Amino acid sequence: MKQIVCLSTSTWYPIPTRKQQVMSRLKDAEVLYFDPPVTWIAPLRDPNAKPKLKAYRAAGERVRGHVTAYALPPVWPFFNKYRAVNRRNQKKTAAYVKKRMAEAGFDRPVLWCYSPVSADAVDRIPHSALVYDCVDRHSAYGGLMNPVLVDEMELELARKADMVFATAEGLAERLRTVNPRAMFLPNGANYELFQQAAEPGDVPEDMRGITGPIFGFVGALQECIEYGFVTSAAKARPEWNFVLIGRENPGVDLSGLRALPNVRFLGLKPHDQLPRYIACFDACLNLFASGALSKDVSPLKFYEYLATGKPIVSTPQPDQIMQFAPLLHIARTAGEFETACAAALADTDRARKAARMEEGRKSSWDARVAEMERVLGEMGIL
Q1: Is the peptide bond between 36 and the residue preceding it cis, with omega within 30 degrees of 0?
Q2: b/e code 279-293 from CB counts within 10 Å (16+ = b)
Q3: CA 44 to each of CA 38, 40, 247, 250, 254: distance values in angstroms, whole numbers, following the listed order
Q4: How would you class 176 by CB atoms within 10 Å of its CB: exposed for 0-12, middle for 13-18, buried for 19 or more?
């Protein structure tokens, strides 16, 4: 049985991202999964973070047959701004991880990391191999960080790693400057789940009563989304409905959209219920605004949309979605977005639907993780 320690950037609950999808599918493995810590000042920005200051789990929670999740103890803020703070935090993190490893009988596991800050922890945690799975241009997020420091820590982590995966080719190219083995491997979709949206089903209660075409967005409502396109189209086409499903990130001003009668915010929904909602959409929206972060993102939602077979209206970001351009409706301006939405409503060809679903199948998480295991197996890591 392989032993894997995962230092994640996403809590196991409630939203399954690449980290949970990968760890859930690794074969013949026992996984210790560590949620990212909150900072001591997190409640000042988000009151919901206050309980997490005392919620770290020493005993762990069995979240899958082979995965035990732990919540790391709180850390000091500004760790992405000052290296000395990060070193202190990661020393504490490493000590906690080693205790949990000892309790689980882990000796020298494969250490699987997702954040540049782990550069200061990996040398303190015994491991047989180090994998860095890069899922974002971390230094592009802004906020209380020093982008130069974040990039520096990431390159240091990639240099130490035995294998590096990256969700965008642009990310992989940068990491190859310090680790020639860096490999582009984009995100995927739970194909078996999302293909259920290809056929009509039970309509969720909060979708009932919506008449007329429905254009739906599923995902985090963060700053890098192109809300202006939706605002313009919603005003120009009052007979169209725009449904936004997902958690609202603090600091994003959505008041203009909320004022429009044909724009609806349904909030965060359980992952296994999303196909019921997407089945009600006439078209799915992938709307990333132009920018450094959007260029190299690998949107989970996009691959999930493909699995449904639904028409997709998208901006040309991120770069990787353009390989599917013949199956999409691309919009670079607000005017093009309205035109693309109209074209999506007419996109009823069954062959195009089947082609989108086939691309979703080839992009399944099962396929992605099998490729990871193949590469790591050939290297003797797994």
Answers
A1: no
A2: bbbbbbbbbbeeeeb
A3: 12, 9, 19, 12, 21
A4: middle
- How far apart (Å, rounded) are the C-alpha atoms in residues 262 and 128? 55
**SS3 assignment, position 284:** strand
Structure-block tokens of residue 344: 């999506």
**Cβ 69 vs Cβ 56: under 8 Å:** no
Q: Which secondary structure element, helix H or strand E, spans residue 154, and what is its range? A: helix 147-160
Instruction: For residue 317, give Cα distances in angstroms to 248, 260, 320.
Output: 21, 26, 8
Q: pLDDT tens, 206-252? A: 999 898 899 999 999 988 899 999 999 999 999 999 999 999 887 88
35 touches 75 (CB < 8 A): no
Distances (CA, A) of 184 to 107, 180, 291, 298, 316: 30, 12, 20, 11, 19
Q: What's the CA angle centered on 4, arms 71 and 138, to 5 degrees?
A: 60
Where do we find the tokens 């990871």? 372
In this structure, how many other beta carbons lie within 10 angstroms of the beta carbon of residue 140? 18
Q: Which residues pair with 111 in a beta bridge?
A: 5, 130
Question: Among residues of the chain, what percentage have pLDDT more than 70?
Answer: 99
Q: How many residues does the chain have?
A: 382
Q: Encode pLDDT of 94-153 as tens digits.
A: 999 999 999 999 999 999 999 999 999 999 999 999 999 999 999 988 778 999 999 999
Give CA–CA dist 212/228, Å, rounded. 21
d(CA 283, CA 132): 35
DSSP per residue over 117-133, as a string? GGGGTGGGS--SEEEEE
